[in-house]
Design goal:
Blueprint lengths: L5 E11 L2 E5 L7 E4 L2 H21 L20 E8 H9 L11 H8 L6 H13 L11
Length: 143
Amino acid sequence: MNLPKYYKYPAIFSPDGDGWTVRFPDLDNCFTSADSMEESIVEAQAVLEDCMYFREKQNDEIPQPTPFESITLEKGSFIQAVVAVMPPVRRAWSRKAVKKTLTIPAWMEEELRKHEGINIFSILQEALKERLDIKEPASLGFY
């Protein structure tokens, strides 16, 4: 599947007491808030990137962005385009660590204590790659 390199959606920025809320009218459950305007812009991009990543992963519908002129704003609010640049987001999520519990024999634990600087987790990863005859993918097919 050929996924786009970026998504661009209108976001509505609204004052909210001491800060700002941001919502994307085209995307349910895609919103954020922050204490300052600057923070809200950064948070808007981050939430849009995560939202679009999970829509892709779950094969959810990805709606077309609503034209700016079709969006009605409340007093004090404004609209701004927010861009989600997806290749680094996909890469970051694909490399996210997954916790696994490891059980080893007691004698092996005793041997490990004799050797400083051994990282059992990297050894396990390397052993799994070798055993499964796989290499760490550069892109995991997201580009």
